[in-house]
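seq:
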Amino acid sequence: MVLGILTSIAACPAIIGTTEAVRSGQKQNAREKHRSRKANLSVSCSDPSRKARDIHGGTVVLRDNKLYVTTVNPKSKFPEDFTNNADRIKQWGHLFAGYFFPYPESKWGRRGEGYVSTIADDPPQLNWIYVDKDTYEVKYGLRKDTEGHIVGPWNVTPIDRRLTFDGWEGFTVVEEGEGVWALYFDVDDDGLEEKIPADQRIMEVELSRKEIRMMKGDPIM
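struct:
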């Protein structure tokens, strides 16, 4: 009897350790569920220039195989008087709705995954999000379009879940026309020195995933 009690006591740490490991794994799985949920991308910009007010609080849209940032200033000269309004967004481009997805043959491990977004609602279509190796523009396309370019890994910061690419936050916007802001990634961390003209305006931004509201009848993933 005494031996049985001693054996049970000795086994307790192992049992507790196994239980905690299972609980930890369950919590980790719950935390990671967000990765498979569609989310919009909202934009934060702390640049000291007045131009930052036009895009701070904007959102990311897709058009002509590139990603752009909407303006929130109703007086800005964006094409078709484009402002942060759902109807106007649909008129100008497609609202980014993306999630993480394994990129074929990638070997990034825990560093991240590929990233996809819808590019149309009807019929529903998905494209890969990638960074052009030559221009550093953030683009979208089919698998064949991404070949030879920088496709990942995409991930999020551990607390605020801001978007990261290749392990860090190097997202910038470049003003390609009056009030037209295209999304870039500063791969070389030099302010896109050799990618855009010196007189072209550039600002650093942060991208945060904003989970799309679930509607009645949506599957719980």
